[in-house]
Amino acid sequence: MVWEPEVEELRRRTELSNRGGTPDRIERQHRLGRLTVRERIHELLDDGSFHEVGALAGLGEYEDGELVDFSPASYVMGIGKIDGRPVAVGGEDFTIQGGSALFPMQRSKGGLGGFCEELALEYRIPMILLIDGAGANVGATKKMGTTYLPNGAGTGRSFVTSIEAMQNVPVLGAVLGAIAGGPSGRAMMVHWSVMTKGRSAMFAAGPPVVKRGIGHEVTNESLGGSRVHVHTSGCIDNEAEDEHDAFRQIRSMLSYLPDNVNELPPVAPTVDAPEGAGEALIDLVPRNTRRPYSMHKLICSVTDGGDFFEVKPHWGTAVITGFARIDGLPIGIVANNPRKNGGALDRDGSDKQTHFLELCNYFHIPIVYLVDVPGFMIGEQAEQEGTLRAGMRAMWVGLQATVPQLTIVIRKCYGMAGMATGNPTRLNYRLGWPSGEWGSIPIEGGVDAAYRREIANADDPDAKREEIEADLRQLRNVFRTAETFGIEEIIDPRETRSYLQEFVERAYKVLPYELERKPLYGVRP
Fold first, then answer.
1. Per-residue model confidence as pLDDT tens digits over 155-200
2. What is the pTM of this model?
3. CATH tag for 4-255 (out of 3.40.50.1000, 3.90.25.10, 3.40.50.1220, 3.90.226.10)
4. DSSP characters for 189-228?
């Protein structure tokens, strides 16, 4: 019993640390619809699995050498499990000085670099960041007695570990409060992110700084709420109704990813597609090529259980990206959306496709393209936005990908945008539905350019145009392309899932060879 007093002191200090900030600050957090950081961690992780590291870090108040009070450090982190898988997890405690550091510590716990990220790197386990920090506190300058140069050894290196983590393990982030400065930058250095609707916001600098700097009166929501960053800027991938929904999405996203870049994605039990869903695909695509249809319905008709975890569902909506399973094995799906711009590839859709392809390639997830793209988006706005630059980059990244890919042409596949739906440096296995059509440029519209003089000189220009288009439409027959082996197979739409099953089975047999390669590049924010 010699050390019983010290063990009792350990218990007391742990209790003081677990209490977080003052009761009024905790009450304010709850009033705003937000949990405390420890409540978040315990809800996210498997019951009883959290092992906190650094719980005793903080600022003690002493009288005559005895501890009379204790302020915990503003960052909580450690190791826990999600569905039995070990993860490193950390987050700011906003109830303690807005999540900003109280004082310099000998070693950073997390936030920007720190022990949490080092845990993920050392043990090659995914990292989950629960971000709720106000950023730099100008009051710290007075405590330091000097300002600092941002790219110094103690500050500029903050993101070095973050970058290294992204090169090795999945990094997922949740924006759960109003964050600014460094925490906002950290929210960008992840593979996937989510923020809560109406309860969180993100900005380089908050409303007080904006007002003083450029004279604009703004609110947290108008400056950087989910409407801004999920729907408009695309800085954050997904939107959650509340924190409980955010944690559900984190668990879903993680279920498709391996623990690190040296492992294959996890396998789940096989679940059949919804009964009868595949049969309905024969009627999915209208014969009128100007009429849209639901690409989401197609996806959910062929995947295990009809499940599809969409990434960036509210941004770049001309392209649909997300994860699904076929016979329990994860795949990444890139699909054109005929309900947005007729499926034409625009700037935001191109950027969205680029990042998703990088993510799939980096974590060894086979890619399936579901194609209905009439080409790049056209018009003055498209040109001013740099659609060509973004679109060609999407094609370039697709050509760099080394994971197996399968292309299924549902309807249109035209021009350079059509080139961004496969990888001719590999097998480039392409299937076509009978509704497919393809070429360098759609006949409708292309005729006016190629036969301009002939149409203009005709007695009836409209009749002449229709005559030429009708003649060319005969050449658009998919079976003529198949005759020259210009497409590998034309398939019955109702058999799409069976073809996907064959593809996935073969793909996962060759993926182990992927593990032997050293990735050429990481996944950019």
1. 556 678 888 999 999 999 999 999 998 899 999 999 999 999 999 9
2. 0.90
3. 3.90.226.10
4. SSSEEEEETTT-EEESS-HHHHHHHH-----HHHHHSHHH
